[in-house]
Structure formats: C-alpha cells, structure tokens
Amino acid sequence: MSGLTGVWDQLVDAVCRPPRDDSYTDEDLVGGQRASFRLGKARYYRQDLELHNERGERLLCSHFRPCIVASKDGRLPVVVYCHCNSGSRRDAEEIIYHFLPRHVTVFSLDFSGSGRSQGEWVTLGAREVDDVATAVRYLRDEGSALTIGLWGRSMGSVASMLYARADPSIAGLVLDSPFARLRDLMLELGSSDDSLRMPRAIAKVALAVLKRSVRRRAGFSIDDVAPVEAVPAVQCPALFGHGAEDTFVSAEHSRRLVRAYGGEARLRLFDGDHNSVRPDDFYEEAVGFMLSALRVEELLGFDLAADEEDDALAAALALSMQEHRAGRDAGALPLSEEAELALAVELSLQTSLLEEAAVRAVVGSGEGAAGSPPPPPKQEHVEDGPGSAGPQQAS
C-alpha cells in the first residue's frame, strides 16, 4: 500500500501544487513596465494593485482600463478573469483584446497559492472562491464597475460557479472546461490513467488515501468542491465551453453542470483538449454572450455592431498571446517581439477609425468635455506603473 500511497501523493502534488507561474515580472504583463498600451488611437493602462483575502493573504491583481472612459458616470462593465490551477493573472491575455475595444474592462488576479500571490496550496476552487469574493468586493467599493461578469478557465470556472451561487448580482458566466465534482474527477483520473491502471474498486480505496493526503497538505476536503451541487441555485446566464478531445476533464462534466444549472445555460463544444488554444469562433460566441449578459449596449448606449469589424484582428492578437503562453508552459521559445509588434500595429491601423468615431460620438453628444477621474482606490490597495495616469471621464 505504501507504493500506492506514493502514487497518489504525486497526484496531490500535480493537482494542489502544480508548477507555479511565479517567475514573471511586470514587463511580462500586457502594457509592460510602463503599464500602458494603445489599440488604435485609444489608450489603455494597467492598474496593478494588492488586495488581501479573508485569511490575510496578499493577492496581486491587475485591472486593464481605458484612459478615457466613454460613459456619462465614469463606470464601465467589467469581466473578472479567473485562471486555471497552474495559471496566473497574465492568462487574462486571452480576453483583454476582445473586451477593451468594446468598452468592457478586464480585472485579473493571482489566486492564493498561485502566481505571485501569497499562499502555498492550490485548492481547486475551495478557497479560490473567497479570492473571487475579495476581487468583486473591491470592484464594488471602488465604484467604477457598472456590471460584473466572470470568465473562468478550469479551476477558475469552478471558483466562478461557487461564487455566483452566493451573489445573484453577477451578470453572466463564461465557464471553460470546468469539472462537476472533484471527487469524481479524481476517481476518473485514477481509473483511466495508463500509468496507474487501477480498477475502479481499487481506485476508490486509493481515493481515501488521496483525501487524507489532500487534507493533511492543503487543508481542505475534496468532497467540498462540488460545483454540480452549487449550480442549481445560480440564476445568471452561463455559457459552458469544453474541448471535445479533453482527456483530463471530459466534456461530460460540463454536460452534467448544464443539466443541473438553475438559470439559462448552454454548452459549446470545440475541437481541442484541456490546454489547447481555443478557436476563434468560440471567442466570438463567448464574447458576444458576455456583452449581452453585461447589457453593454443597453447601459452605455453604444452600438457595438460596428466593432465587429475588429473581430478578426483582435482574435489574431489574442491568439498570439495564447500561443506565447502555450510555448512558455511547454518550455518553447516565446513569441518574438517583432511578431507581437506586427500584430499590434495591424490591429491599431484597423481599429483607429472605429475608436475615433466612438470618441466623436461621445464628444459630439453635447454633454461636455472630459471630466474628473473616479476617486483613487482605498489606501490598502497599492497602485504601480508610472505610465498609469488614471482614467479620464468623457461625459
């Protein structure tokens, strides 16, 4: 039995202490060291800040925002990006370029135990849900969020569902490759992995060893991580996405969650596995779904149809970031600076007219010129970035 225990201890390490993305610097985040960047003629900045969860652990966060806020009251919809168990806040790269030109800000965080935040263990949603609560509370207290949606990847999807059960004001969820119940996932991995080759009956015995090891090391019970038991109480609309060839978390997990979901929910299957680059048409559907859930057109009065001309180029830049991340995780060479610059220039050329038209529409409405920025965050939230002059309000 000692050999079996050793195998499952390795599984605990793989799930609760996967490789940690903690070696990145501010230069690796969108906006670089200056924390500012352009898309067309529109300028954006990255507000870096620190929050503390209810356990007192420091969480490193970034809020990607426009320098000029094209809304009358200075508020915009926001999407909170929740990363996977081996990820970090920089994984929000996959959605930043889709949402910012559409007047939606993106907030990302390193969960406790992940990235450069404090904490030792990843808990697959058991404690990450508290970090989501910390981020949402900050956004509401800070006052710039009009509506809030959650976009999660794998573990981040689970944390999003667990949080949405307790907060009916969340506008919508995009849930990429979630599992339905952690205990079931562990049994599946123990029964199907060729390196373990255990009959299901033996896997159940080994699961008891796994549960004790998880509780001893990470301090939580895998039985407590069961989003399929939480989603009947969730009423906001949700779009589930899952790779049809995912052999780590099978698509059946998403099917179970959709069947149990309390509100409107649908499943979008796409080609690929658990970690593959997501196809353009998935992003097109998911972004459109989230824009509708956030009520962007209704609340801001913008016609987003014109922005659809930018889809292909925004997708190209987001794809380059995904491929960069995939290469980084696989130990491959990163995307060259020349390639990133070429994509950024192409996107800028195509979006400049659209952004200029949006600014003219706001300024020409007769409401006045740029106003004062919203109040600064409370003192416990530390801002970085010399290029971050803060937002201005175009009323």
Automatic annotation (TrEMBL):
Locate the AB hydrolase-1 domain: which residues?
Answer: 77-190
Q: This protein's superkingdom? A: Eukaryota
The record ties this protein, via InterPro entries, to: AB_hydrolase_1, AB_hydrolase_fold, DNA-binding_regulatory, UIM_dom
Note down the stretches annotated as region Disordered. 364-395
Which Gene3D superfamilies does this UniProt record tie to the protein?
alpha/beta hydrolase (3.40.50.1820)
Name of the protein described by the UniProt record: Uncharacterized protein YqkD
